[in-house]
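Meet our chain:
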Amino acid sequence: MLAQYVFSSADAPFRIVRHGHRWRALQGDRELGRFDTPEEAVSGLRAACPSERLPRRLSDWRFLPPAPLGHLPPPTAAAMARLAAA
């Protein structure tokens, strides 16, 4: 999972997701823009969706730190042997 900020809305969740060196601003699955900082993404989302009650401050958004494949157990010795044989 990538680092992201999340705000839940009645219509769709709003997310600001780290994408390389930039941040993607999303409403549900729809991308609304790419920004250099998450603060710029908040401003962009607020401008794109003025009828939504999005927080102005990034500190009011829920931050989810990156967790790459943290939900998966480490590979077993048998799985590593199959990969080495392939």
About this structure: Helices lie at 38-48, 77-85. The mean pLDDT is 90. DSSP finds two helices and five strands in the chain. Residues 4-85 form one domain.
